Amino acid sequence: MSIPVKIVNKSHHALPAYATEGSSGMDIRAFISSPIQLAPLERVLVPTGIFIAIPSNLEVQIRPRSGLAIKQGLTCLNTPGTIDADYRGEIKVILINLSNEPQKIQDGDRIAQMVFQQVEKASWELVDILDETERGEGGFGHTGKK
Predict the structure, then answer these.
(1) What fold, for 24-118?
(2) Which of 24, 48, 49, 70 would be a feasible disulfide site paired with 10, CB 3.0-4.6 Å?
(3) What is the DSSP string of 7-70?
């Protein structure tokens, strides 16, 4: 099933696209006038030239590309990044270099992927006590490694 989404492409690159029939995310590309050199642990906001009108019952999540992460150590911060349905600005991606060497981003590089997700709204129900569970108040690491 495909949901129609209005898009403005101010870049000279093809529209975001699914790489394969079974892909969950659409690859999005850097739209930059000159290469970006990222030092180790440096982060940058990379424009894409893409603007979209997300339907009101959806959000878009910006996620890292696994190949970029393993091969170059480049990944997205604020992952997954959420784009709300009422945002109409340019989609930009926060990248960080987690490798030990400088990494270069070129115009047209596939830098992240966009995944459309259904959004459910919640409403609060104020109560005096919550129901008991086996986990209870056990926090981080409470269930162990295995």
Answers:
(1) Deoxyuridine 5'-Triphosphate Nucleotidohydrolase; Chain A (2.70.40)
(2) 49
(3) EEE-SSSPPPEESSTT-SSEEEE---SS-EEE-TT-EEEEE--EEEE--TTEEEEEE--HHHHH
Looking only at the bridges linking them, the beta strands covering 36-38 and 103-105 are antiparallel
Please give the angle made by the CA atoms of 91, 97 and 98, to the nearest 5 degrees.
130
Question: Domain map of the chain by residue range?
Answer: 24-118
Q: For 18-37, how does the pLDDT look when each residue is reduced to its tens digit (9 = 90+)?
A: 999 999 999 999 999 999 99
Question: What 3-state class would DSSP assign to 98?
Answer: coil
Q: Three-class SS of residue 81?
A: strand
| Backbone Cα Rg of the chain | 19
b/e code 114-128 from CB counts within 10 Å (16+ = b)? bebeeeeeeeeeeee
Spatial distance between the Cα atoms of 13 and 28, rounded to a whole number of angstroms: 9
- Is 95 within 8 Å of 77 (Cβ atoms)? yes
Two structure tokens written together for 129: 């006590």
